[in-house]
Amino acid sequence: MEHLQEQLDLLLNQVTGAHAIRTRLENLVSVYPFNEYEYVISHLLAADVLSLDAYYELRDEYLARNMFLYIFEISAPRTFGESWAQGHLKELVPDLQEPSKKLDPDYSGQYDFLLGGIKIEVKASRAVDADVNAPLYVKALASDSKKPFWMNFQQIKPGCCHVFVWVAVWRDTIKYWVQASFEVENSPHYSKGQHRGNVGEGQLHLRQDNIRDFDKFQVKSDSLRQAIIDAHEREGSQRS
Asked: Rounded to whole angstroms, how far apart are CA atoms 127 and 161?
């Protein structure tokens, strides 16, 4: 959004009466789908500062930079974390199975997926501006943003699965990390005791100042299946 605002501001400088337009913007009442961007773009088109072809290019560039912005519009955390994130991972790794007592007699909701005998827990979060109090889609960040962000992966129980898959969403990209359970449990960024009395449960904080610590666990979407298998092997060798 910041990039689009800069582009439009530069173009607006070329319009006669730009000051009056900016003054009007300060008191502009926005009702969907009419808003400040529609207002500025309509003036740029009318003033021939922005051609129709240039508008199409501006629009296509914005869509490319914000292709995952719609995910920030999912307001309910449970809908995002379970329905969207788990469904997204299932699309990427079709071999994943939803656990049941038939597949695992001891299963009681402790983890999200099975891959063969590998128990997998999926955790998801979205990168937002940590200093802004606004709806998620307003404070959503691009992956190259320098603004501070904070992702909190909650209700982590290393003793209940073999492998964790972290799914992190930015405006323009989705990133994935795959870790063995013991790697999470022993991470300096894992905080034990999220809820009082909940033994073996914690949370993991991922921020702009520690995200590089997870580089060795980051994988591409088409490598997730093998990364899960590799993490399970690391888990087995550590626990044995």
From this structure: 25
For 139-165, how does the pLDDT look when each residue is reduced to its tens digit (9 = 90+)?
999 998 889 888 888 889 999 999 999
Q: pLDDT at position 143, please?
A: 92
Q: In what side-by-side order are the strands of the sheet with 150-156?
A: 150-156, 202-207, 190-192
Domains in the chain: boundaries: 2-65, 75-239
* C-alpha distance across the termini of the chain, in Å: 50
Q: Strands of 174-180's sheet, edge to edge?
A: 113-115, 118-126, 163-169, 174-180, 218-219
Most distant CA atoms of the chain, gap in Å: 74
Angle at 58 between CA 24 and CA 11, to 5 degrees: 45
Q: What is the pTM of this model?
A: 0.80
Query: CA 43 → CA 28, 35, 38, 164, 186, distances in Å?
Result: 14, 13, 9, 50, 57
Instruction: Please tell us whether the domain made up of 75-239 is placed in CATH 3.40.1350.
Output: yes
Q: What is the DSSP string of 46-103?
A: HTTSS-HHHHHHHHHHHHHHTTTGGGGG---HHIIIIIIHHHHHHHH-TT-B---TTT
Report the distance separating Cα 207 and Cα 189, nearest Å.
10
Which residues have C-beta within 8 Å of that of residue 143, sequence separation ≥ 6?
Answer: 127, 170, 171, 172, 173, 175
Query: What ranges make up the beta strands (E) of 85-162?
Result: 113-115, 118-126, 150-156
